[in-house]
Amino acid sequence: MWLVGDRRPRLQHTLAVIFSILAGVAGLALIPWSTQRLTLLLSLGGIFDAFRLATDGLSVFLTVVATVIGSLAVIFSVDYMHGEHSLGRYYAFVLFFIGSMSGLVLTTSLLWMFVFWELTALCSYALIAFHNDDPKAVRGGIKALIMTQLGGLGLLFGALWLYTYTGSYDIPQFLGSPNSVPPTVLSWMAFGFLIAAAAKSAQFPFQTWLPDAMEAPTPVSALIHAATMVNAGVYLLARFYPAFEAVPGWRFAVMVVGMLSAFLAALMALVSFDLKRVLAYSTVSQLGFMVYAVGAGGVFASQFHLMSHSVFKALLFLAAGAVIHALGTRDMRQMGGLGPSMPFTHVVFTLGALALAGIPVLNGFWSKELILEVGLGHGNPTWIVSLMILSTGLTAAYTVRMVAMVFYGRGHQDHHEAHDAGTAMKTALIPLAAGTLTTWLLLGPFYASLKLSLPHHKLELNAVWEEAVGKAGVSEWEMTFKVGLEILREPSTYLVLLVVVLGVAAWLGRARLASLIATFRGVEKAAQASFGFEAINEVVVQAVQRAGEALRATQTGYLAWNIFAILLGWLVVLILTMLGRAG
Predict the structure, then answer these.
(1) What is the distance between the alpha carbons of residues 355 and 311, in angstroms, rounded to a whole number?
(2) What pLDDT is recorded for position 537?
(3) Measured in Å, how far apart are the chain's first and last C-alpha atoms?
(4) What whole-number distance in Å separates Cα of residue 308 and Cα of residue 366?
(5) Residues 283, 313: contact at Cβ < 8 Å?
(6) Model confidence pLDDT, tens digit, residues 413-440
(7) How far is it, in rounded angstroms, from Cα 95 to Cα 16?
(8) Residue whose C-alpha is closest to residue 148's, from 129, 128, 122
(9) Are 228 and 97 in contact (CB under 8 A)?
(10) Mind giving me the DSSP string for 157-211?
(11) Taking the model in full, what pTM does it have?
């Protein structure tokens, strides 16, 4: 893509779409192997682990999410990035981003997982700071890079500890015998991985980098939030759950991180006026639901909500991109009344919003209900479950607020000529809208895929569901409807729906509740200030930048010394590789 040159933008758009669609087709082609182990092995020798990619239900599912939703983001970019400069750099990093995420989930080597983990960080930095003449974009990119790199140290040390005690980076082998690592070291690994996941998925207390990442072009925002970057942290926790579930305090810590992320981010979304930031806080909150589910023992519920979220959040971000592209602003206070002038965007955005709020029968309803039902079992603390249910009400409130401010009310006088989404935008939005309505039907096949291909994971759901799975002659589609009926029979479902209705009513009746709302002004101000974590994270970022400036003294600026250092490093790597092959 980069070699084509920016003087031929039409060719760049065309090639990017072709490559991304081929990637999506390749991802979909792996689905038949989601219950069978198909392995690609390249023996590298030496200190480098063999390059291994292998399929199972979890890796194939996330590969499909990365490639298919990534391809839709690329198609959307044809309209959104029309007339932009540096298209080669943009599309090259977008495609590299999709490939890096695919490698991260397909590899069975913890060392190569770390390599792909870092590549996704590189791509996110380059794309967030794509408009490198904008100080806010550069600042957002650097902040995302530093925060995620700090978390990545946990993954790196975990990989090194695993190799130290087992002589291998093999993930399935580790999941089958986690006791091969001493208990103390296993605890360090477990909490190191939790820090890595929290930083990557913008969870408490690292949540402030994701809203600042909204300076990226909107298709990149959709890619980060729905298909690649932030999904990696949730995937890490789900993949290694069998190894860490018995570590004292680990599951509780995961639940607390998820709960605080879901609750605090929902409050921040409720007071923000930047459309993309509201969606960013929403992503942090919904990822909190997934992290909480892993800690509560619901690996399947967590990953099923990841699938639902990837579809409806990509729909919301791309639809928001259509609005921003038409109006030239992200401030919801300057919007309003856009429904008549943008009917298609209005419909698809509302559809995604209803799924986010958890309204039946959209995909977000079913997956969120599974998470809350799992949380009520397994002896999990009631107070955490209560705050998670409250978070669903806050989700409904900020979702209604967002839709009302953008598409209803009195329109801004400068926006009376706003145009609807273009052809390429609609081409990307229509499949996502259809998926928001239908992906919940994949519940049965998805569960069966994970059950058959993850021998070390306990995919616990209620007794009725387990009984349906165990019956001979019951198809996967029948399982979907059985669990759906079971969800509708659960009293907790109606409790959650009541909380959702109360959240909607609280926003619609905010004028009558003015005196009550006034008592929470302190909470509102704290939410607008990110509850103080923005300041804390800023101190960390500035400290790292100052350290970098200090280390700059080690760079003489002489090209000869730089070439010497590169050659010396290459020589060391070559010697180590040859020694490994000889051994």
Answers:
(1) 10
(2) 72
(3) 41
(4) 9
(5) yes
(6) 555 566 777 788 888 889 999 999 988 8
(7) 8
(8) 122
(9) yes
(10) HHHHHHHHHHS--BHHHHHH-GGGS-HHHHHHHHHHHHHHHHHHTT-TTSTTHHH
(11) 0.87
